[in-house]
Amino acid sequence: MWNNAVRPLLGLATVGVIGAIVAATVVLFEGGAIESVPVTVLSPRAGLVMNPDAKVKLHGAQVGKVSSIDNLPDGRAAIHLAINPSWLHLIPANTGVDIESTTVFGSKFVQLIPPPDPSPQSLKAGQILDSEHVTVEIDTVFEQLVSVLSQIEPAKLNETLGALAQAFSGRGDKLGHTLADLDTLLTKIDPSLTSLSHELSVAPQVLNAYADVAPDLVKTIQNATRLSDTVVDRQRDLDTALISAIALADIGNDVLAGNAQAFTAVLHLLVPTTNLTNKYNQAITCALGGLKPLATGPPLPVPGVLLLDSFLLGTERYRYPQNLPKVAATGGPQCMGLPDVGFGHRPPYLVTDIDANQAQYGNQGILLNSNRLKQWLFGPIDGPPRNTPQIGMPG
């Protein structure tokens, strides 16, 4: 009796356990027991085959799924994602989003695109991402194709195709060679696509610069037009000037040809002089720079040259053969600070070996304020000698 009452209960319990296992399996399969982080993607459109439970991928691996899709008042689509928390730290906060499909007719999924410069912060719960790229569906392509074809008149299309067929008839070999040459050209251009892309990216800046100077360029062209008009108006005068120049060239040719040997000799004679001036160009430039203030300064009140003169002692008499001319100065060209000599600056005295040494015989000349002169004027003075500033050697 008791066994008959327990059997229905055991059967009912078994059915309940099996149902619970099936329900748990379904929940686990759908990810209901897995904790997820909500993220929202705003897109211009979701696509025709974007449905809930669509995959969310990063580098080809599934990191979540689409939980729901809502339409916004501005016409955009809000795609709510459920991201697996274990993958959240691998997704940067500034990641990009594309809505793609495996095939033309396949269902869509959300593709997370790592940015070129990833943010150090990870994706957070409730963050909103923007998607600007959605794979075009085949029906959209057909719709655009139909809109284009509807604008074409069949008769004109038939005429165009007939003309193309007639143009290519018998020229397949040439067309094949042309396509092969085009392929070769594109193969050569392919390594330079990076440089070409850079040039195209900076082209707007260059064009803007040309646009800024366009008025000046137009003005320059206008001036060039006026110049060309002047040349046309003065064509006869230009012809006369050219004829005169040709005649002058002929005369100059005769003069130079007749005196070529003399000119050559003169140039050879000038070589030592020009070499010397080239060697002393520093000193010559210095001297000319020193003379410039005399030429550019204000005129003197009295015409002439202002000099500060005084009487000096005579030099030693000429002795033969000790005072024969001697050329032994060395040191090359020098410039003693000209043309700008600072205030209070005394250029150094250049001592050279030209046999002009006034002190070689020990002649002291006239001495003033010497000790003998003081005794003659004032008599003997007690105490040590008291020499005042003097001219000449001390007595």
From TrEMBL:
The chain crosses the membrane at residues 9-29. Residues 119-333 form the Mammalian cell entry C-terminal domain. Residues 37-115 form the Mce/MlaD domain. The keyword Metal-binding does not apply. One of its GO terms (biological process) is biological process involved in interaction with host. InterPro entries: Mce (IPR005693), Mce/MlaD (IPR003399), Mce_C (IPR024516), MlaD_Phospholipid_Transporter (IPR052336). Keywords: Membrane, Transmembrane, Transmembrane helix. One of its GO terms (cellular component) is extracellular region. It comes from the Bacteria. This is MCE-family protein.
